[in-house]
Amino acid sequence: MIDPPLVLTMGEPAGVGAELTVKVKSIFKNQYPFFVIGDYKFLTTVANKYSLKTLKMTSFTDPFEYPNRLCVLNHSMPQEIISGKISLKNSAEVKHIIKRAVSIVLNNDASAIVTNPIDKWAVKQSGNFPYEGHTDFLASLCNEKTNSVMMLTNKDGFRVVPLTVHLPIKKVSTKITIRLLENTLGLVHKVLKSDYNIQVPKILVTGLNPHAGERSTMGYEENDVIKPVIVKLNKTGMSLVGPVSADTAFTGEKRARFDAFVCMYHDQALIPIKTLSFDESINVTLGLPFVRTSPDHGTALDIAGGDKANPKSLMLAIEEAQKLTRIRRNNVKSL
């Protein structure tokens, strides 16, 4: 049985999403069947620059029947798209495109979702978007209550998970709770076993404060929240180490030893992986009833339309989505 195609979302219309999608299709050709939801007219204009033909889709089988064309499920923008210049009316359509993608994958007309970057400010300014970003918005669109977690990974298997994501630093400590940490660690452990076939996942947990609090002389979160959760979950058979001071958590020896690193806040997790592999790291959303991946970079408005966007991260996101889809399918068959 052939899996349905992947579905890509265009992302912020004024960003690099269209350029990246066209470049990736030109490189992959028919290796990974996918289609993109976005403005057909604009995507065709971009594709013409790379001598790539497009097709306005009429069937979800089109990516298989027209493998040499970029198949586009049209979602027209209300205003002309100008690369690098945000239109709030166009940005308002971003959330509707994401909703269409989720509906399609839940209906089994696509096997997984790969999202191009969105501009969170623009989507929020355009109205009715009370979410931190893609991760919690996607969870809200599922039919069941879903605990979603953002994990970033690179081609070398270095995986980081921020416990809190798009929050001001001054609010991070108030959000680090026993419940959140237990749920996050439990989900990461479960996904590493099911989607990555790691029988006993080894997970390092960082502290929040310098030197992991140093016996509560620099903060109490380690002793009050992090350490008790680790002790409790290790008794259930999980393999957790921590809290580890973040300044020594990501050495080469530890990256080789641990399968994932659960960090307390956004930059604590993202700085090491982006420093090591900026163009070759991706985002995988854990906890959804479908596979969702994305490149680990932003909309790059400053270079949009200039043929400067590097497609490597989007390529890896597509490859990872395909791989995880097949693993999940094989796991279902083996039950």
Protein traits:
alpha/beta, twelve-stranded mixed β-sheet, Isopropylmalate Dehydrogenase, 12 strands, 2 domains, 40% helix, globular, 335 residues
Question: What does this entry look like structurally?
Answer:
It is a single chain. The chain has helices spanning 17-28, 40-49, 62-65, 88-91, 94-106, 120-125, 134-140, 169-175, 178-194, 221-234, 252-257, 266-277, 312-334; strands at 6-9, 34-38, 54-56, 70-74, 112-115, 149-154, 159-162, 202-206, 239-244, 260-263, 281-286, 291-295. The protein is α/β, with parallel strands linked by helices and 335 residues long. The protein folds into two domains: 1-146 and 288-335, Isopropylmalate Dehydrogenase, CATH 3.40.718.10; 149-282, Isopropylmalate Dehydrogenase, CATH 3.40.718.10. Helix 1 crosses helix 2 (40-49) and helix 9 packs across helix 10. It is globular. The two termini are 17 Å apart. The relative contact order is 0.16. The model has no long low-confidence stretch (mean pLDDT 94).
SSE layout:
Layout: E1 6-9, H1 17-28, E2 34-38, H2 40-49, E3 54-56, H3 62-65, E4 70-74, H4 88-91, H5 94-106, E5 112-115, H6 120-125, H7 134-140, E6 149-154, E7 159-162, H8 169-175, H9 178-194, E8 202-206, H10 221-234, E9 239-244, H11 252-257, E10 260-263, H12 266-277, E11 281-286, E12 291-295, H13 312-334
Parallel strand pairs: 1-2, 1-5, 2-4, 3-4, 5-12, 7-10, 8-9, 8-10
Antiparallel strand pairs: 6-7, 6-11, 11-12
Helix pairs in contact: 1-2, 9-10
